[in-house]
Amino acid sequence: MAKKRRSSGKKIGHDPFADMDMSWIEEEPSPKPADKEPESTQVAPESIPPAVPATAPASPSQPEATFHFPDDFKWGVATAAHQVEGDNTNNDWWAWEQEEGHIQDSHQSKKACNWWGNAEADFDRAAKLDLNAMRLSVEWSRIEPLPGEFDEAALARYAEMLQGLRARAIEPMVTLHHFTNPLWLVDEGGWENPETVDRFARFARRVVEALGEYCDLWCTINEPNVYGYLGYVDGVWPPGKSDQKTAFLVMRHMLLAHADAYREIHDVQPSARVGLAHNMRILDPATPNSQLDRRAASVADRAFNQAILTALDKGRWVLPLGFGPAWRLRGTLDWIGLNYYTRELVAFDRTQRESLYTRRLHAPDAEMLDGDYGEFYPHGLFRCIKRLDRLGLPIYVTENGIPDDDDDQRPRYLLTHLHEMWHAIQMCYPVKGYYHWTLVDNFEWAEGWSLRFGLFSLSLKNKSRKPRQSAQLYADIIQTNAITPQIIETYAPELRAELLPG
Ligand code: FCB
What we know:
Blueprint: E1 67-68, E2 74-78, H1 81-84, H2 92-98, H3 115-128, E3 133-137, H4 140-143, H5 152-167, E4 171-177, H6 183-187, H7 195-211, E5 217-222, H8 224-232, H9 244-268, E6 273-285, H10 291-314, E7 316-317, E8 324-325, E9 335-348, E10 358-361, H11 379-388, E11 395-399, H12 410-426, E12 431-436, E13 456-458, E14 465-467, H13 469-480, E15 482-483, H14 485-491, H15 496-499
Parallel strand pairs: 2-3, 2-12, 3-4, 4-5, 5-6, 6-9, 9-11, 11-12
Antiparallel strand pairs: 1-15, 7-8, 9-10, 13-14
Helix pairs in contact: 3-5, 7-9, 8-9, 11-12
Bound molecules: beta-D-fucopyranose.
């Protein structure tokens, strides 16, 4: 069915979308949040005195407004095995790093943050911040170094790490696939091979059998969309391909693998809570009143954000991800994870066939994050949460953070994003936890060590850690379970007018 076209007066060139069936880019209506009951917003008891007194009286000129989070809210950080463990020599990323030209400044992960040797030192740092949650991943190439052969010593080390978290009252969320693959899997075609679906489900089962005693919160796969685009369209990640069709095939296989793993995990551990971490970007039209830009933004949004959600939620492949039923995916989420960082604007560009006639840009006046990482756009977090609410599932913000070596933007980033999340919780969107990316500067894929996302900085020379100011800010928020006027005053007084009434 062709979409009805409005006569816009001015027609620029040939519109390649005119002959396409565009019905798949229509938005689905979102239910009104107003019908829901508000959740409790009481302050949790403090475990240690906060650095900033949460209940100190505000100055007479300063209005009292404290943004409380729910009692049982999970405050965490997120990491991934290859980025922190070191010596992951048996996976495709390690091989990729050895080839010249792939990683900025020829950086390599090498010993990374030495978590394989001593993750516990960083668990202590996390405990000092009073975190009660941590998202980390297990490395497939360590656990299954050869097809069907599982390494008990590697599983024992992960069990030790999870026990270490539990001992510090930190609840683990374990991701089973975070971008890296064993070399043997790559030799057999990696995620292009449909057999990888079964292999992943078998791996997931084995991990849950071994680690289920210490963890019941599982994230099957991290960001199938980012994995597909960067490895198979942009070609800047392994396997370095440039083929849109293959990218969508790979994403479909990852979603099927998620679904099969979901069933295997529940078979082993009926009480398991299983989800997937989905990267969402706000993709707004560059010129809101241009019909072509609006359509381009809608196409880009469908391809990157929505198609995966529709597949998981409705059990249906929609273009450009695929076409037809995907029944196996239905009912395979106990929660949904949101990885949110930034927004981009989208313009129609008839020369960009490979990217569905879309071009990404930023508004000239947008505040940009370090390292060209995108726009500083906190309201995007609220918009993504609102959109995910349609799934009717608990939501975890499984990643959110900023590359900021000198920590001049992070305090404001953290406060404004957490304020947006607080607002979403007030609207009764079921956000259950927040995992900041990340605890310590780590190996940032193709950007190597140049992007510094940590609450703690890492010295590349001697691997020593130093808390950035934001570490204390995050600790203050966690310890008061709230954003208080005093916290705003201490860490980002420039936000007073934006966040506080009056
Ligand atoms: C996300 C990845 C994570 C990290 C952050 C900055 O897309 O999941 O590993 O690289 O970006």
